[in-house]
Specification:
43% of the residues lie in helices and 17% in strands. By secondary structure, the protein is of the alpha+beta class. The two termini are 50 Å apart.
Length: 453
Amino acid sequence: MAQTPSIPKGTRDYSPEIMVKRNYIFDTIKSVFKLYGYMPLETPAMENLSTLMGKYGEEGDKLLFKILNSGDFIGNIPDQELLEKNSIKLTNKISEKGLRYDLTVPFARFVVQHQNELTFPFKRYQIQPVWRADRPQKGRYREFYQCDVDVVGSDSLLHEVELIQMVDEVYRRLKINVRLLINNRKILAGIAEIIGYPNQLTDITVAIDKMEKIGLENVNAELQEKGISEDAIVKLQPILNLDGSNDEKLKKLKTILQDSPIGLKGVEELSIVFDYLKELSIRTEIKLDLTLARGLSYYTGAIFEVKALDAQIGSITGGGRYDDLTGIFGLKNMSGVGISFGADRIFDVMNQLDLFPKDNATTTQVLFVNFGPQEEKYCLPLLQQLRAAGINAEIYPEAAKMKKQMGYADKKGIPFVALVGENEIQSGQITLKHMLSGEQSTITINELIHQLK
């Protein structure tokens, strides 16, 4: 007996019903990206390991999927090296390529490689899968999609404002109620400076970024473990618990960070962004959150995170400003800013809240019942007319029993069935059945096109 086929752990098949919903999300996000002048970009699924290694930290390197070299990849390896079982040393000799871990590093590589062909500021969006050799668990997969939008080659804060507008527009169209959290890494650097630990910014930000998950008490304990003194932790408390409106928080921060030039620069940048936003109609709640740090160390300015208000799930969008991401490939001082929409989490939220359009679950709007060869010939030009008008239509491929054809339409969720038999051919009309209500009407092909459009 043949073994039942399966797929690798941490990957998924997407059925047509799920793909229709996923494409609705992708198409919505993509349409908003294009409104703001961003252009599509795709990079290869695999990159040279020299491009990927060392860009995500030691743990990230372990999560890279490596691809074996073609041919006799082990033939030239000395027996002694094989016996040593040094996997890292061996991998360097038998594998030169790997699957991309994210879209950001390949994007930076692309910008550096094609810098003389690009027009700066360079605005691109990218919607592609990425791979991580992580332990599969609920909500965490080895293959998943990212929807990134970035602009590089400009330090204008107008880009931060545009990203916020795009977040607002995407979630308005998807009908998800969200809150956008914003902070600035320069403010966090200023806080580390005034509590006396400027060189431990990473330790401090990694700890406070866990505030929502583990609570203030555990954050303080982690800071102590990292060598932050009790006095410094005490100084940090009123800053982390800062309340009031966004303007009130910024005003208090000006006083708190008055002896930190970098901290004041962060306050100034956020103040400018908030001033621009006051001139715009933004539906999304925007909150300055000083516990927002985002773990990636390459962020240098504004940082964003978006939370769904009506569903228990982590952030569904995140990003920020990075001043020298392309520097890892030798192109210095190329500032950029971007955000990534988490398609998988957005899908989960929309499914949970039943937000997908009801008429979006099918690709076919009308099915023509097949009564035989004569009727097939008559129906084919009618189908052509419908498709020319942009209406998705199909005919059952054979003159099967009516019950079977109706069952096909029902299972596929096709809302209308067209019956064209001898009487309809003679009268030049169509009997249209609404599958949900069971109602039937007799109409012409032009009336059908008008009704379905």
